[in-house]
TrEMBL record:
SMART domains assigned to the protein according to its UniProt record, in alphabetical order: TSPc
Protein name (record): S41 family peptidase
Organism listed in the record: Pleionea litopenaei
GO MF annotation terms: serine-type peptidase activity
Chain ranges of the Tail specific protease domain: 294-504
InterPro entries in the record: ClpP/crotonase-like_dom_sf, Tail-specific_protease
SUPFAM superfamilies named among the record's database cross-references: ClpP/crotonase
GO terms of biological process kind: proteolysis
Domain of life: Bacteria
Length: 536
């Protein structure tokens, strides 16, 4: 939305004038309101993970509003957090003023003020909480314990950040290349020689560019856009994407969706496929009485062994499918602390009900074969219902000189009444190349449990939280900059987590029926293992 500068906003006028100079606007500035966190089935992405050993988080804003704008005369930030702060890992300078938080994108080559808005929810996530670590160091969080970035205090904004930004095609390419140079973490894993690719594309652009740096030269922007597409295509990383608008037309560039989704979208259509899978699961794979809840994101019940095996059986096997790591409730404001609590509470209650209904089960299947990611806390919390002891789940680090590294742990679920239900018997995990992001974090976490056997296809291999990088014009970039590692220091980015018992989950001939056959294979494997143990 657009709004005139009013007298009660003069305390932030000095920095806003920087944006006026950089953007070329004269009488107005753009004020960008944050969008709400919405997890949807097609295209969820995980928010960053939590740190466990820091001071208590405080609300960064003194007033609790439904959404915090980039500038507001009705909200104030905490005095202890005000100042100019630099995050080397994310390439951000954040200036926390009395009534505004301004964000600059900075590398050794570029620095400019950027809006806190964009076409994805990662572009519009807003820091609401702060942990003051020292006079010169803070940690900002989107939610308490999740979505973090560390910042060091600066005495002043670097002089070059006050200069007018180069919004020409040359300046936009320079920023794009600089962001990849300093923040993209997986050239090696993705098989890309970045130096060679960057130099060759830059040389091509320079050979075709005219003498003027016209900020509206569509032909030159077309050439830059084509070069950017080549970079993103070679990386084949679903967490690295570009939104570009040329002459009023916006195009999204994203690759790395995996074989299954690419096949489904070109043939059957995703909506028809998902509908068919859900109907088959509820009416054939599971016994009557299976539950489909959490805004249609969770299914649980008992496997219909008679239908799958063609014979009667007194055995019982539980089944839980989770499509996204969150988005289960609509009773609280998305992105708020109460929303985060409601999401985790809903998952805990649902899993407790499911496990209680599995009291006679000899095994439980956790199906993440169609999980599109989501909230990291949800991804870790699943395992809390299947363990009696605390354990380390995974590590997160940056490829940077400071290399901040964190270890995330899982504690067994406990409720206030001490009536919790846990299942610690055989646990069978099913994944496919659709399993991505938060679904892969859940996989990484669950595989630490000794009773887990992993079935199906290798996961997608896109773990890193997307780093928002608005470009100097109205284009928008996200890229991968975090390393998610197993506790054995294995990095699965780009290659995915392989199954212990590999087989295809969604085949091209019948991508619906093949899912039911995958569940059947797990059941048969379990029965064979049980029979072998009985004989011994």
């Amino acid at each position: 939305m657009r709004q005139l500068i009013t007298p009660n906003q003069t305390s932030v006028l000095s920095r806003l004038l920087v944006y006026v100079r950089q953007s070329g606007l004269l009488g107005k500035i753009n004020l960008f309101w944050t969008t709400t966190l919405i997890l949807i089935l097609s295209g969820c992405q995980h928010t960053p993970a939590a740190t466990l050993d820091l001071p208590e988080a405080q609300s960064l804003w003194k007033s609790d509003k439904s959404s915090q704008p980039n500038l507001s005369s009705q909200a104030e930030t905490l005095a202890s957090a005000r100042g100019i702060w630099f995050s080397q890992e994310n390439g951000w300078i954040i200036e926390i003023q009395e009534q505004a938080i301004l964000r600059y994108q900075i590398t050794p080559e570029v620095c400019y003020l950027s809006p806190n808005t964009g076409p994805t929810f990662m572009s519009s996530l807003e820091y609401r909480y702060v942990r003051v670590l020292s006079d010169d160091r803070i940690k900002l969080e989107y939610l308490p314990g999740d979505g973090q970035a560390y910042f060091e205090r600066l005495a002043a904004l670097p002089e070059r950040c006050l200069h007018r930004v180069d919004r020409s095609s040359h300046g936009v390419w320079k920023a794009f290349a600089s962001f990849f140079e300093h923040h993209y973490a997986f050239f090696k894993e993705r098989g890309v020689d970045w130096q060679d690719l960057r130099d060759s594309l830059t040389k091509e652009l320079e050979s075709t560019r005219g003498e003027s740096l016209n900020e509206k030269d569509a032909a030159e922007f077309d050439a830059v856009f084509d070069s950017m597409k080549k970079v993103i295509a070679q990386l084949n990383d679903s967490h690295t994407k570009l939104f570009a608008t040329i002459e009023g037309k916006t195009e999204k560039v994203q690759y790395g969706q995996g074989d299954t989704l690419s096949m489904i979208r070109s043939r059957l259509g995703e909506a028809q496929w998902l509908g068919g899978l859900i109907e088959q699961t509820l009416n054939e794979t599971l016994q009557s009485g299976a539950k489909h809840l959490g805004q249609q994101r969770i299914i649980y019940g008992k496997v219909n062994l008679e239908h799958l095996l063609g014979e009667k059986s007194n055995e019982s096997i539980g089944y839980i499918q989770i499509f996204t790591m969150g988005g289960f409730t609509d009773t609280a404001e998305p992105g708020s602390e109460s929303w985060a609590k409601a999401e985790v509470d809903y998952l805990n209650i649902t899993l407790q009900k499911a496990i209680a209904s599995f009291k006679d089960a000899s095994a439980v299947i956790i199906d993440l074969s169609n999980n599109r990611g989501g909230y990291d806390v949800i991804a870790r919390q699943i395992a809390a219902h299947f363990t009696d002891s605390e354990f380390a789940a995974y590590r997160v680090a940056y490829r940077s000189p400071s290399r901040i590294e964190r270890v995330y742990r899982v504690e067994p679920f406990k409720d206030e009444k001490n009536t919790q239900h846990r299942f610690t018997g055989p646990l069978y995990l099913l994944t496919s190349d659709v399993t991505v992001s938060g679904g892969e974090l859940a996989t990484l976490t669950l595989k630490n449990l000794p009773q887990v056997t992993h079935f199906g296809s290798t996961t997608r291999g896109s773990f890193s939280t997307p780093l928002a990088k608005p470009l100097p014009n109205d284009w928008y970039l996200e890229l991968s900059n975090e390393l998610f590692l197993s506790m054995n220091s294995e990095l699965f980015e780009g290659r995915g987590i392989p199954a212990d018992v590999p087989f295809e989950v969604f085949n091209a001939e019948d991508p619906i029926l093949s899912h039911r056959l995958a569940i059947q294979k797990i059941v048969q494997w379990h029965r064979a293992k049980t029979h072998s143990s009985d004989e011994r």
